[in-house]
Amino acid sequence: MVISRFIAGMMLAVSPGIALAQSASGATLPASAPRGEALAQYARPHERVDIGSGRKLNLFCMGTGSHTVLFDSGLSDWSVVWALVQPEVAKRTRACSYDRAGMGYSDPARGPRSPMAIAADIHALVQAAKLETPLVLVGHSLGGFNVKLYAALYPEDVAGLVLVDPSQERTYDRLREHLRNRAGDALAARMELGDADSIKRATARYADCATAARTAELDPTTDLYKRCTDPVIPALGETIAAERISLQVTSAYQDAQASELANSVYGDTRGDEAYRYLFSGQRFGAKPLIVLTHGNFDASDPREAADYDGAVWLDQETAALSSRGRQRVVPGTDHYIELDAPGSVVDAIFEVLNDLEED
Asked: Are strands 55-62 and 94-98 parallel, antiparallel or unpaired?
């Protein structure tokens, strides 16, 4: 499915074709990767920044440098997924990750967690924390769309972007003709209708998880918990694994992830017309922009091959939003490129920083 790469973890039980987060669980750490206490520091709150309206967002910054890099995670995740990348970036410049409302150590928010609401929170965080702008924004999956939207809405705040297997708006509006030419009408239709069905089922499942957690915290020993949470990621260590359980059982976490999917570019298409003109032409001018695409797929499966071709097509279109945009495939990776090949993400960030220093 074209959008299947963006819905990891809990979707494993919804569709047998979606098995994305598991690849990260077997990731081999590079020799320089953080271990022990360096990883454990992601298992506790850091600076909880008051962004107004009685809410605080967790912000974790390290390092110094001429530009600040700000990370946003994907659906169901928070800053912990950057534990193999952020410390490496901090060796060169200021690197900050944050937790979205209701995720990690950030307070929950009222109202739908739409991309617009998330972008507004990022803007409030940047201002309240006095982060030095323009920023280099890095986002994975739905977080990739969050930072892409932020860059369009607040261009003065953004110097460059790295999008890691990013979610894409208006997926089939942009891709339908290409897929029909590539795979034929029947297969293209099955892919589109299958994606729409999977989104509906995933949204319903997330909503059921949130309802259950409001009655009582989820029991980690039950099948319900497994259906409502991401798989364990051994590469991040036992301390983080235990802390993830303690956070994922809560109603704040379950409510936030359910709302994020229901109001995402996949669950709610009411923003499509705005996205149509917002992401047209070279919206980002000459700002450095790198889009990383996972490399693993089964070329012998016609549907999976067409799905992957569509993912690359969309990522290339996103890269074209900047005259200095480029898209590249990271071999040997699945959806969680930052866990499967963290060095590739670090290299992309450094490449953007190099471009900015040469300007």
From this structure: antiparallel
